[in-house]
Amino acid sequence: MEKQTLSQFLLDEQRLRGIHDDEFVLLLNDIATACKSISRAVCKGALNGVMGSLECENIQGETQKQLDVITNDIFIEVNQVAGYYAGMASEEMDAPYEIPVNLRKSGKYLLLFDPLDGSSNVNVNISVGTIFSILRCPEGVENPKVKDYLQSGITQVCSGYALYGSSTMLVITAGFGVNGFTLDNDVGEFYLTHLNMRVPEDTHEFAINMSNQKSWEAPVKNYIEDCLKGTDGPRGKQFNMRWVASMVAEVHRILIRGGIFMYPVDSKLKDKGGKLRLMYEANPMSFIIEQAGGLSSSGRQRIVNIKPSGLHQRVPVIMGSKNEVEMMCSYY
Ligand code: AHM
Ligand code: MG
């Protein structure tokens, strides 16, 4: 079979399945262009002299890396030109970004993103990624305010991530399954390589930052304890553990071979509500995982059902293989 580029794939879906309008196909091409550009910036590594930290912190009080800011600018610049968006919001910006007046074209959508997730890994040459979520802009709103962005994950039109790993990949869903594309650097195009990705329902692999163990809440402690008992314990199997500290890499591994990813709330994070951000990380990744047949929960409810109360809100995250997430949540 001929190799299909991202655009050819989307146009085929439009023609054969009647999904996506022209604007949506073009909009995803712009997302892909921004990710290609970020991929180049990340791949150049120390050659560009931008691997260090900046003096400033983002709204979450985290020290920003130079690349956090550079990739944030790339994502805005590439995606604002065509006029699909009424506004944008990012993990790296305190307030929503207002589209400059000369570029405003009554865009239908809102773009939310984390331009460089896992950026603490960038100095040590470990995979990082970009995560994005597209929402509809409420009808009649031309200059969206924070409240216009506070929509539950269930309303997402599209979400996805780019993984800058040993190869660069773009994985997307628009509510019709999940498909993965690999960047051919010689041609500068994303090609379809992973059609209709499905998360295996069972797993014996968990991903959690074990160094937080003493601060977890009881259900998480009990669940992990049972996993660690191996073949003699209640789970009756030997578990394996992985922790990249890069959510995109973790979720991608789970899409390929199954697993459960957890960033629970712990006593250190209690006031914040968790570590991961609902709008930029948890919701877009939940949409992907659920579309691939997996589950995503805060432990107490489906993440995409959470009614957001703030743009930078944090939530506990448990996602991955269906049967394992169900098992984990039964400990709550
Ligand atoms: P970031 O958006 O500031 O990079 O933080 C999110 C990242 C996730 O990719 C990853 O799962 C987690 O933080 C790692 O946390 P820890 O440093 O506690 O291992
Ligand atoms: Mg992040």
From TrEMBL:
Q: Which Pfam families match?
A: FBPase, FBPase_C
The protein's GO terms of the molecular function aspect are: fructose 1,6-bisphosphate 1-phosphatase activity; magnesium ion binding
Compartment list:
Cytoplasm
Indicate the segments forming the Fructose-1-6-bisphosphatase class 1 C-terminal domain, all copies: 199-331
What range(s) does the Fructose-1-6-bisphosphatase class I N-terminal domain occupy?
A: 5-194
**According to its UniProt record, which reaction does this protein catalyse?**
beta-D-fructose 1,6-bisphosphate + H2O = beta-D-fructose 6-phosphate + phosphate
Kindly list the cofactors needed.
Mg(2+)
Q: Which residues bind Mg(2+) 1?
A: E91, D114, L116
Superkingdom is Bacteria
Per the UniProt record, which EC number(s) apply here? Answer: 3.1.3.11
The record's principal subcellular location, in a coarse class, is cytoplasm
Q: Which family is annotated?
A: Belongs to the FBPase class 1 family.
Quaternary structure, per UniProt, is: Homotetramer.
In Swiss-Prot or TrEMBL terms, this protein is called Fructose-1,6-bisphosphatase class 1
Organism (species): Methylotenera versatilis (strain 301)
Name of the encoding gene: fbp
